[in-house]
Amino acid sequence: MTRPSPGAGPGSDPGRIRPGTPVHLVLNRFGDEFGDYARYTPPGCRLVHITTPGGLPAVDGSRFKRPADADEPLEIAVVPDTRFETVLPVAGELAARWGPFAGVAGLSEYDLTTAARLREHLDVPGARPAFVHRFRDKPTMKAMVAAAGLAVPRFVELTSATDVDVVVERLGLPLILKPRSGAASVGVVKVRSRLGLHAALPAVDPPGSNPSGPETAGSGAGRFEATGFEAEEYVDGPILHVDGVRRGGRLRFVSVSEYVHTCLDFVAGAPLGSVLLDPGRRRDRAVAFAARCLDALELADGTFHLELIEPAAGELVFLEVGMRSGGAEVPFLHRDLFGVDLVGEAFRAALDLPPLGPLPALGRPPAGGPLSEGPRGEGPATGLAAPSGGWLIFPEPRPWPSRLVSVTSMRHRVPEIVAERIPVPGRVFDGTGGYEDVGGSFRLLGPDEATVRAAILRIIDGYRIVTEPLVPAGRSAPAATAEPATTPGSSPSRPVAAAG
C-alpha cells in the first residue's frame, strides 16, 4: 500500500516541491518515538517513508504530537517486510515520483544492508553494501580489527561440514557459537564439550532460520545475510559497551558502560542491565581502544554500539560492533542523562546531515541542566542532572505462554529509579517480546557508578513477577508462580545458556 501522507497537502504534488529541496527515503520498522523522524529532519528537507505496518503510527503522525511547523512526509508506503526484494520495486516507484533521492536511511540493525543496497541500486550517496558488511558480519569485523594489531577472540567460520576436532583444537572449550550477522544474542549458545559441539553443528543455519533478517549484497531471492555461523573463543571477563557518535573521523560523543549480566544471560532468562563507568583510567582505556577499533573499520560518520571484553589480565578484547544505537534502554538513558539522541544522530549521519546539536564531550552530562521529560509517558525523569546512570530490563517470565497475575513496583523502594515501565496484570507473555515488550524495565540516575550498581542489584533482588501458565482447554493449569529475578548460578561475566 502506498499513499500520500495525510496532511501533506500541496506538497503531495511533486510539481509543488520547491526546486532544489532534498528528498530522503527512510525505511522504518520502529513503532516508538524513534520512528518519528520529523523530530530529526531539518527545515528544507522532505521525507518519503517505506514502513512496516507496526511502524506506521510513528511515521504518519497518529501516535505522537508533532510541532506545528513540522513538514509531513510526502508519501508513506506500507510493506509487509523490509527485505530488499520487497522494498526495491516500491522504492523505484517512489523515486520516479519524488527522486532523485538525496539520501536513504534505515536505522534498524536489520535494515542497514537493505538501505545500502537501495543506495547502490538508485545511485544515491552514502554507505554501500561492502562497507555495511563489515559492521554486520562478525568474522569480517574481527578480521579487520585484528589486522590493526588489536586483540579479538579467535574464531572459525562454520558450515555443517566443519570438523569438530579442528574447531576445539583451535579455540579450546568452552566456546561460543553465534550467527555471523545476528543481533541481541539470538541464536547464540555457549558450548562446553565436544559432545555439545557435535550436537549443535548439524543445526547450524537451517533453511529459513532468519526470515526477518536482511539480505546480503548479491544474494538471490530467499537468501538472507545471516547465512552461516561462526565459532568463537570464549574469553572470560566483564563485558563493556561503548556508545557514541563519530563525525569526520573523530569521536564527537562517547560513553562507556559495564553490563550487569550479558545479552546471552537475558536470552536464557536473567535480567540485563548496565552501569555507566565513572571517569578514570578504566574508562579512558576503553575509549582509546574503541577509537582504534573504529579506525580499523574506517567508520568516519555514524552512531556506534561497540562491545569489548575486559580480561582479568592483559589487553582489552574486541567483541563486536554495530553501526547503530544500542538497544534496550540505552538510547533513552543517553537522552535523559546527556541530552544526546543516539537514534537521531544515526539518522543525521546516514543522510549526511549535520548533528542535531552540540554534543557533550566524552560523555559528560551537561552541568546543572534539567534532564528531558521521561519518554514513553513515564513523566519527568528528574529535575537535576546526575553524573552517572544505568538501566535494567527483565525478560518475559517463563514458561510461555503465561498470564501476568501480579508484579512488584520498585519505584518507591529504590530512589535512584527515574523511570519504571512494568506490565499490567492480565498481560500475556509469549516469548516474542525481545528487548522491547519485556517483563519490566528501569532507568536509574545516581551520583556515581557504585551507587547505581548497588541500586540495580536491589531491583534484581526485590522485583517479582507472578504469572500463571496458559494451557489448552481441558487441561488443568499448575498454580501461579513467582518468576525469580535472576537465574541461579548466573554471574555478570559468565553466560548461563549452554549446550553439552
Write up this protein.
This protein has an 8-stranded antiparallel β-sheet with strand order 14-13-10-11-12-17-21-19, with helices on both faces. A hairpin with a 7-residue loop joins strand 13 and strand 14 (317-322). By secondary structure, it is α+β, with helices and mostly antiparallel strands. It is globular, with a radius of gyration of 23 Å. It starts with a strand and ends with a strand. Helix 4 crosses helix 5 (138-147) and helix 5 packs across helix 9 (281-297). The protein has helices at residues 56-59, 84-98, 112-122, 129-136, 138-147, 164-171, 194-200, 263-268, 281-297, 330-338, 342-350, 449-462; strands at residues 2-4, 23-28, 46-51, 75-78, 103-106, 155-158, 175-179, 189-191, 229-233, 239-247, 250-260, 272-276, 302-309, 317-322, 373-374, 379-380, 388-394, 402-407, 417-421, 428-429, 440-446, 465-469, 481-483, 498-499.
In short:
By secondary structure, the protein is of the alpha+beta class.
Percent of residues in β-strands? 15-25%
Q: What's the arrangement of strands in the largest beta sheet?
A: 14-13-10-11-12-17-21-19
Q: What best-fitting shape do the alpha-carbon axes yield?
A: globular
Q: Please give the radius of gyration in angstroms.
A: 23 Å
